[in-house]
Write the structure tokens for this entry.
Amino acid sequence: MNFVVVGAQWGDEGKGKLIDFLSKDVDLTVRYQGGNNAGHTVVVDGKTYVFHLLPSAILHRKKICVIGNGVVIDPAALLKELDELRAKNIDVTEKQLKISGHAHVVMPYHRILDGLRESIRKNKIGTTGRGIGPCYSDKVARCGIRMIDLLNPRILKAKLEDNLREKNEIFEKVYSQPGFEFDKIYNEYLKYGKRIAPYVCDAALFLNDAIDRKKSVLFEGAQGTFLDIDFGTYPFVTSSNSIVGGVCSGAGVPPTKIDKVIAAVKAYTTRVGEGPFPTEFATSLKDEIRAKGNEFGATTGRPRRCGWFDSVLVRYSIVINGITELAIMKLDVLDELKTIKICTAYEYRGKRYQDFPLDFEVLCKAKPIYEELPGWQTPTEGMQDFNRLHVNARRYIERLEKLLKVRIKYVSTGSRREDTIVR
Ligand code: IMO
Ligand code: MG
């Protein structure tokens, strides 16, 4: 059984916890897009780990983790993650981690350019500043540097020279910033290459071969459907395909080898960075839920914007990802609320929208239409049995299931692995 876990909202849906939980039953876990803009939190034995590039299954010592070609890799960030694990006595061997030689490399000029572009934008995206957009831009512009290039000094030299010729002009003339020195980057990245070399392979061949040998694979989405470069709230999105379609191009595994798609959604909604968010709370509730749900970015520490569950949004996600099962995360964060709202449609200039609107103006100005349900006002934290949930909590889940027309198989009631209901 090979399956994909995607985020159905704006990222931070609790994918890390869900993937850690589900990966106990699979042989391999694969990242297929995004980079260290992701922050996937896993809590095991009272210890909290945040993964940015490494797949969230990395704590399962006997499982294999793969970073696919669709991921953009900042080698310094990757090595830092590996070193931090080593400091906790978790040594990731070359048997346990495979990295695609096709994956593109985040270079220092990508990181700087990310910040400079943001600084001159009137409508800021609120990127994570990790160089993700500029790195993917270079990939598409055909001047990117790939992981395999770090292992070949001659190729790296030629590509880096070409890049700096153009980039240094841009830095100096457009942004009035100093350019980059070839030797410094070249030597630094050759060193990274040496350290990462044992993990580098043709990950697509490796994965397809494993699947042919009946191994099971979990594909770990980063970001969420509404941050997808094509289907998200463009231009307030990330630069990759975070929807299920990204698996085929980002891991080299064909759709005929994928059996099902699970989406993670929060029991409410959050967003970090700029862009439209129809069900966003007014300030007081925002503060309350942010504090209760610890809604601060796992990558940048920025406070997340919070709002009610939006079924218009998630329904769209279910359609374009072909979701077969849903996991509702962080239900316990709503425990204290007297009433809980669910957005079931939008309204703009007298017109009702049941489907996610195409027009950006509608999306930005639409008024959400809510239905209101009674809260349960009893603790659900740590619960593992659906039938023991307060009747109002069960009703909330069942109402979501009905609105979304998909089975809710998992309900998360806390950050620990075991705080999970399987229905
Ligand atoms: P995980 O995998 C939430 C957001 C940024 C910004 C936009 C573009 O933890 O769910 P980028 O740096 O990618 O160019 O920023 O996307 N963003 C995320 N928001 N969760 C994430 O990842 C995100 N990765 C990027 O805040 O709005
Ligand atoms: Mg996150």
About this structure: The domain at 2-100+200-262 is CATH 3.40.440.10 (Adenylosuccinate Synthetase; Chain A, domain 1).
